[in-house]
Each structure stands twice: as structure tokens, then as C-alpha cells.
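note to self — DONT lose this again. spent like an hour looking for the file last time. sequence + predicted structure for the chain T wanted, 193 res
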Amino acid sequence: MSDQSPFTLFETWFAAARAAEPNDPNAMTLATATPGGLPSARIVLLKDWDANGFVFYTNTTSRKGHELAANQNVALLFHWKSSHQQIRIEGRVETVTDDEADIYYNSRARISRLGAWASIQSAPLANRGQLEARLAAFEARYPDEAIPRPPHWSGYRVVPSWFEFWQDMPFRLHDRTTFTRSAAGWAAGKLFP
């Protein structure tokens, strides 16, 4: 059983993934639930993390934004094929501060910032020309680098209550280490493969 904190172990595994994964080692599956309770999953990118949680950014009026507003319980999954590892995280989301969202938004490429205005994320799109026309309109509206963050664009922090670190092992005798949050801190455990 590990005596490490889940964040220390995450840091070790994530550093190895950044060194070995050819594409998007920060890609993670975000699972939410629809208001009717149906599961809903998509890939988002981890943009920041610390002992408080794991942060991603999105349009808050998108399908995922509506699902997060209705039910703050979520799951994350990191899968790194090259290292035969995955990390599952369960917890609740909270919105990041405006300052955090502004800092990250302003670090993005100009076209990405304009895209946050132009895209009505998850809404039906008649054709690609509709998106391109909206993008051109916002390029005209904001011709320089001063592009404010849209009010509907922010970040979410997944505050974990449970982790599973899964390592592939020969003959499917995988190693599975869990961490469960309690009032006393993090309790480590093991699961059968």
C-alpha cells in the first residue's frame, strides 16, 4: 500500500506521461450526467492542477456546462496508452475564480480567444460557414489583442474525493491503488485487478 498522497503520485505519473505521450498527455475524459441521469462523457484538457483539484476551461452554456450546473458530481479519467497507466478521479466541480479564468483566457492564442466568442458551443450548426462568419464578425469587433473574456466562458475545478491509480501488469494481474478522502485526510487502499 502506498503512503504517498494522491497528488504526489499524480505528479509522478503525469510527469512521466508528459515525457512519453506523443499527443496531449493532459487529455482527460470528463464524465457528467444529464438532468435525467444518463451518463455523458467527452475529452477535455487539463490546464492546471494542485492539491485543491484539477482545472479545465469551457463555455458554461454548453451541454457540459448545463450538466455541471445541474449536478456537480463528476468523474475524470486519464489514460496513457504508452505507459499502460490510467488514473480515475471522482469528485465535485466548483467554478474557478474570475481572476483564474482571466489569466488563463489571456494566455490563449488570439484566434482561440475569438473562438470563445464565436462558438455557441453545443448548439446546432447549419454549416461551417456559419461559424466562420461569426468568427469574422468578432475579429472585426476586436481587431487587436484586447479581447475580453466572454461572460459565458470560465473554468471548473474538480475537487477530488477518490482516486484510483491503475498500472497494467502481466497476465492481467494489474496493480490498483486507491485513495479515499475522509475528515482525517487521504486513506490509501488496494483493489483486486
